[in-house]
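Bench notes, afternoon.
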Amino acid sequence: MKLLSLWLTTFKSKLYAIVLVSLVVRVIGFFLLPNQPTVALAPDEGGYAEIGKLVTSGQPTTSYGGLYKISRSLVLPASLLNKIGIEPLSSVRIIASVYGFCTLLLVVKIILKTIDINEVREIDFKKSSAIVALFAIFAFLPSHLLWSMLGLRESPMEFWVMSALASIYWVFYIQKQLSLQIVLWLVVSIVLIFNSRPQVGWVLGVTLLIILLFKVRNRIAIVLIPVTLIALGLGYASVSLSLQKQDVFMLVATDGTATDGTACKDSNEKIIVQKVEYICKKTGEKKSIIGLQNPAEVVFEQTQGIPLHHDLNQVDAASMIQTLSCPNSGETKFDKNFCMLWRAPYMSATFLFRPAIEIDVTSRSSFLAALENILWTGAFIFIITMLIKKRRLALLGPITPSLIFFGLYSVGAGSYEGNMGTAFRHKSLILWVVLLLLASAILAKKTPTHRNESSGNAV
């Protein structure tokens, strides 16, 4: 015990101790989880387990529509575990938990590197304790820990979003020069976000382009703008394009004459053309790529479809997110866009701070979510209070990309979601940004007032 207490005296050791305890909790939690999909909390994990099973056996995944393509970051690694004998549900849970563990390691790496090179290198005990506490919240907040242990897309999605933003932070504020590793890091992260949830991929892409355009005078940004666009194109293509196989036929008459067999559907099918009987003969196979669409049109269509998805997500919802009435009830594109902007503040606030106790509680799980939302509300009140008091945030430049992503995601998800339970789960993706804001507010030095400055000059 004495050796352990000595090891936990440094800031670095405390962070890694949290990571280690998290690993132990994940292992214990894995064996405590039920052997069946947790229908009450995460009914989707059963579907991902079945997709992984189909991939392992080489069977088509068409029965799940396009879900396979937008969950490959989870189900493909899980299928590898399935091949060595681990059953499908356990496979997706293990992969999700590995992603969660890797996310903690990534956060520790960024924290330690930031403290090493920035103005917070001489961090005092009180502030270091606050950062350790925030990191512990990130690691062990019940809902966040649970979503990263169940076989869901939340864990890989969080890891790849943070990885992409970390690569931007690394190249501009730590390494301060471009390298092939950074480029590959960014491209792979963006592509795999699309293979986790394409909508989040587009939100991240817009975030990165905004940041890079503001830094366009920097040579690094000039290179990374086309790299980001290429990565977005690859990510979009990976989940949208598919290879279609089509049989090629010839129409063959009894006298041996042949003609084009476009009308044929099956071999040996008989077709009469101008009173002559022909038989369909397969001559080969043609492959073509389908699903290609202008990415800008895709983003526009998805944006326009947000109100419809919001209505669909309200169906059978135990805690339904109400649609705020709009003063403009027209049906034109302008009217619909106006209503989305009109509702955005309310929908974003609903997404961030509900379910609330005595308003939205319909079950035990919604009650627990409402309790946890008290922490979210308290965190924002604290951030605003500290901002008013200190009138600044520490490391504002480095955290700006995360703040932009937070804003865009909150507006988009708030407008899209119609079910508070699902919205609460999807909110876990931005928990790290809230904790980052808390850390920034705590580490910030108070801006001196004009009166204090004058007094200092007089002395």
